[in-house]
Amino acid sequence: MNLVSLRVITHDVARLAGFYERVTGVRADWSTEDFAELRTASGTLAIGSTRTVPLFAPGSARPAENRSVIIEFLVDDVDAVHRNLAGFVTEFVKEPTTMPWGNRALLFRDPDGNLVNLFTPVTPAAIEKFAGSAR
């Protein structure tokens, strides 16, 4: 089994895709006006419109209600990314902080309120864990 993508359901695909394009520097690929994907070397962030939910199961997903999932991206320099996003991201939850497990992390919310974590491994163990991961 291989995790391929994480899909976020939203009322406004263009707004959310544009936000993640700016955050990641990855251009979204659009299948329809209701579905876009940002593909990285290790996985895909898919963004789907609420209009796609009935195709799976009506009422099974609701936008802007997540409080349990964190969307995470590995970056080369989390402090530089933080400086770049200042003035763009409206809700920083936690400024860059070195976590006990060795990653320097920045937490903020996307326009729908989903929690986003950008991180850079900084301790030898964390660096080794992510060695070879695409950034």
Describe the structure.
The protein has 135 residues and is an alpha/beta fold. It has two domains: 1-59, 2,3-Dihydroxybiphenyl 1,2-Dioxygenase, domain 1, CATH 3.10.180.10; 66-135, Roll (2,3-Dihydroxybiphenyl 1,2-Dioxygenase, domain 1), CATH 3.10.180. The chain is 22% helix and 35% strand. The protein has helices spanning 13-24, 53-56, 78-85, 124-129, and strands spanning 5-10, 29-32, 35-39, 44-49, 70-74, 92-98, 103-109, 115-121. The strands form two sheets. Strands 1-4-3-2 form a four-stranded mixed β-sheet, with helices on one face. Strands 5-8-7-6 form a four-stranded mixed β-sheet. It is globular, with a radius of gyration of 15 Å.
> How would you describe the shape?
globular
Largest beta sheet, briefly?
Answer: 4 strands, mixed
Instruction: Identify the CATH architecture of the largest domain.
Output: Roll
- What share of the residues lie within helices? 10-25%
Q: What structural class do you assign from the helix and strand content?
A: alpha/beta
**Name of the CATH homologous superfamily of the largest domain:** 2,3-Dihydroxybiphenyl 1,2-Dioxygenase, domain 1
Give the overall average pLDDT.
Answer: 96
CATH top level label of the largest domain: Alpha Beta
Total beta strand runs: 8
